[in-house]
Amino acid sequence: FFVNDTATTEIYTQAFVGSVRCVQETVAWHFTELNQLVPDNTIFAHVVAIIESRDKLSEEMKEQLIEVTKDEEVVQGIFDAAKSSMGQDITDMDKDMLKKLSGRLIQMIKYRENMQNYLKERLECVTPNLASLIGENVGARLISHAGGLVNLAKLPASTIQILGAEKALFRALKTKGNTPKYGLIYHSTYIGKATAQTKGRVSRSLANKLAMAARLDAFSLKPTNKIGEAFKGQMEERMKFFANGPKPKKNADVMAEVLKEMRDEGLYIDTTVEKARVTVEGEAEKVEEEPQSEEMHDEEAQTVKLLF
Predict the structure, then answer these.
(1) What's the CA gap between 63 and 173, in Å, rounded?
(2) What is the pLDDT at residue 2?
(3) How wide is the angle at C-alpha 172 spanned by C-alphas 167 and 173, nearest 5°?
(4) What is the pLDDT of residues 80-90, one digit of tens each?
(5) Rounded-to-integer distance, Cα 213 and Cα 128, Å
(6) How far is CA 284 from the centre of its chain?
């Protein structure tokens, strides 16, 4: 379902962006200043649906616009710009088209939000560590591109790092140029915050954590996001370290703390300790059985003596 839902979300996003551009070009002829006052596509669609035409602006719409934009200065700028706008008058046919398009955009926004919420809930349930580390959007795209969570878990960290940049990789190998440093993980917040000099180091560290998180989610019996949250904290510490910050904690120390917490909550069972406990119990049972067997042999010997 990750493959289909992620593809559907991307298709709706592309269609939404194309429809917004169409509405912006149409509105620009009538209300030129609105595109600059409201740069956000989602808010722009709601504003157009409320206004429809700059001639219809009234004080009653002010509260609705403030609720949508959440900025009184922007709303006041819209009212001021409407009074001295350089745009031409709009026809009734264009008004009807804008009304239909804006309504369609709002429907697409609601559907996309519902789909993203669904993906978020499913990822938190199926892949809690991956979702905690990199987020639902990038995590779903990685799973979709790999063809499933198990396939993603089987990939090494070096492949996950450039997953989605296969064309650039083969082009670089063919032309003997520089290979790409990242693929789909470029859309994560870690790569976006990193400087140009540290993007490669951050991408390698992130790919290592993603490989471990995917394997934990794919093969763990009791899924939990505690290790994913620990990986997230490690990535944040490493980002500070790359920016001349303090040295991060060792991975062994961090994992020991997380495993201790999970063991206390009953989410982790140490197989080595469990095997040792079973072995000790088995030896104790054998020790208890041995005296019983000796007594039985004595009774059998006495019975034999009586018979003979």
Answers:
(1) 58
(2) 58
(3) 100
(4) 888 877 777 77
(5) 9
(6) 50
